Every structure is written in C-alpha cells, then in structure tokens.
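Whiteboard transcription, Tuesday session. T.W. wrote the structure tokens on the left side:
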C-alpha cells in the first residue's frame, strides 16, 4: 500500500490548535492523535468524520481537560496528520474499523467515553459494539450506523441530500475541503480556520481518503459492511450503559436521526438528550456546550473502569 504524509510545515501556526503531536503505528501506517489532560484519567475519545480531522475538536478538548478528563482525538487514516494511502481502493469501511480498533488496543484505552460524529460514528459505534468492555459511555451527534433496514433506520435520514453529496465528492474535479466544512456550519469560519481544514491536503494525492469516504457508506443490503453493522446494531440493542444523543437542528442530512437510537438503545432511556442549534459540524457551532454535556454525563455516571496509562510514543 502506497501512502503519503503531509509535511509538518503545513501545520505550523494553525489558529487555535496548540496541541502536541503524538503518533502510533497501526498496520504499518502512522496515525496521529491529540492526547491532552490527566494521563491517569479515563479517556474521552473524540472521533471526527469527513473531511475533517482532530482540529474539529479544538474547542471541546480544553473544556473536558479542565474537568479532569483525558482527551484523545485521533486523525483517521487518510486525514489530518495521519498517513494517507494514495489510492481510493486502499480504503474500505472494514479497514477503517480495523485501524481504529488497533489504535484503541495500541493505547490500551479503557473506561472510554466515546464522542462520535459523521464517519466517526460509523466507525466508532462498530468499535464500541465489538469491544464493549473498553467503553463506558457513548455520545453521538449527527451520526449513523447504516444497516439497510427501513424499519430501524439508524441511517441516513435525508438520502437525497446524501446522494447529491456523494456524487459531488466522487466526480467533482476539485474537493474544496474548507468550503465543504464551512457549508456544514451555522457560523462562518475564519480565514485561519479554513486554512487549517485545508492544511492536511497540500497535494492532490492526499485526498484519496476524503474522496473515498462517501462511496463507502453502506446503503444497500448487499453491501459487504452490512452484516457486521447489523451485528453491531444488535449489540447496541443490549447496550445498557449511558448513551446520549446530540443531533443538530440544522443538519440537512442527519436531522432527526437520533430517534432511532433513542428507541433502540436501552442506555438512551432517561438521558438528557439535546438538539443543539448547529449545522452538520456541531463541534464548530456548539463545541464548548457539547463538551460540558460530556462532562455532565461522566459526572452523573462514574466510570466503572480506571483509565489506562499512556503508551510509549513513536
């Protein structure tokens, strides 16, 4: 597998991103992650989606660390400071799940509070369902776990809007990442923030992962990912640990998707679910408020497993 690496110089002086870089090897690829706060505390694992990176969590990380938590925000393979396979065919849903599962095991994370959005949900919910003993709580915002079942519908709510996005990402000669992120926010990103979202994609061969993601969403029963997703959905039907939904009121694709999770997941019962006034990238529009909700959920539901120690840095 051929992979490229965005030069460190592309990330110098980014607006509101003071975090030290950490790296771990997964399947021969270097994965970057932010690791802030008390290293002895149980971790809050923040997973981004398409086409963002850990920069998305810069306003949430300090709020959670100020409450005494350890926050870990990785860049998915193909994004941010992580290595980027240069061929679209090198990316698959299963590979992304395997890469993230390897990351969690490499850091030996336990007592995890998962915050996931967009593709972070498609990947994170699989990892949590398949290795549930490592996870204590889940918070999901504007995410899904597609199982191609119209009755359950833990999937894309507005399929027309999603298919239009997938067609654009697949066929457009340009993929203007910062403009895409800005369009998914209620507020307008600053010039420095837009520069930060474009930073990982300094050359055309760095965008293969961003190009591939929309086409990897399983939307038909014959998709290779559906059996494993259905098993994960079944496992979530037995998930009694805290499960909080924070779906935005201005997300054109996922708005209303929280109802399927609230009906299906036992741990969602009685939780203080909210509907933030935000776009698809709710971390940009309501980041500190979301982080405060995570802190409240942890305080109201103390961890059953102590956090892990930090691994040797690569």
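and on the right, the sequence the group agreed on:
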């Amino acid at each position: 597998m051929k992979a490229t690496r965005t030069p460190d110089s592309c990330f110098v002086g980014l607006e509101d991103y003071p975090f030290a870089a950490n790296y771990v090897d997964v399947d021969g690829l270097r994965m970057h992650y932010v690791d802030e706060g008390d290293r002895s505390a149980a971790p809050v694992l923040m997973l981004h989606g398409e086409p963002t990176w850990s920069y998305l969590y810069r306003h949430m990380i300090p709020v959670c660390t100020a409450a005494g938590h350890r926050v870990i925000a990785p860049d998915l393979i193909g994004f941010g400071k992580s290595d980027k396979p240069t061929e679209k065919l090198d990316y698959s849903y299963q590979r992304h799940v395997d890469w993230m599962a390897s990351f969690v095991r490499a850091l030996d994370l336990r007592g995890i509070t998962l915050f996931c959005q967009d593709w972070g949900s498609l990947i994170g919910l699989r990892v949590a369902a398949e290795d549930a003993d490592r996870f204590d709580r889940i918070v999901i915002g504007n995410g899904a776990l597609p199982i191609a079942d119209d009755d359950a519908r833990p999937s894309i709510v507005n399929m027309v809007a999603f298919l239009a996005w997938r067609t654009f990402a697949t066929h457009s000669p340009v993929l203007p990442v910062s403009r895409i992120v800005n369009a998914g926010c209620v507020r307008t990103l600053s010039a420095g923030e837009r520069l930060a979202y474009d930073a990982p994609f300094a050359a055309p061969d760095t965008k293969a992962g961003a190009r591939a993601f929309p086409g990897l969403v399983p939307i038909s029963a014959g998709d290779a990912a559906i059996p494993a997703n259905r098993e994960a959905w079944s496992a979530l039907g037995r998930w009694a640990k805290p499960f909080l939904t924070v779906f935005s009121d201005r997300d054109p694709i996922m708005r209303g998707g929280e109802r399927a999770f609230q009906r299906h997941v036992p741990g969602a019962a009685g939780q203080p679910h909210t509907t933030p006034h935000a776009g698809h990238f709710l971390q940009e529009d309501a980041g500190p408020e979301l982080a405060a909700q995570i802190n409240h959920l942890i305080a109201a539901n103390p961890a059953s497993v102590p956090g892990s120690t930090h691994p040797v840095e690569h």
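Someone added at the bottom: Confidence is low (pLDDT under 50) at residues 305-314.
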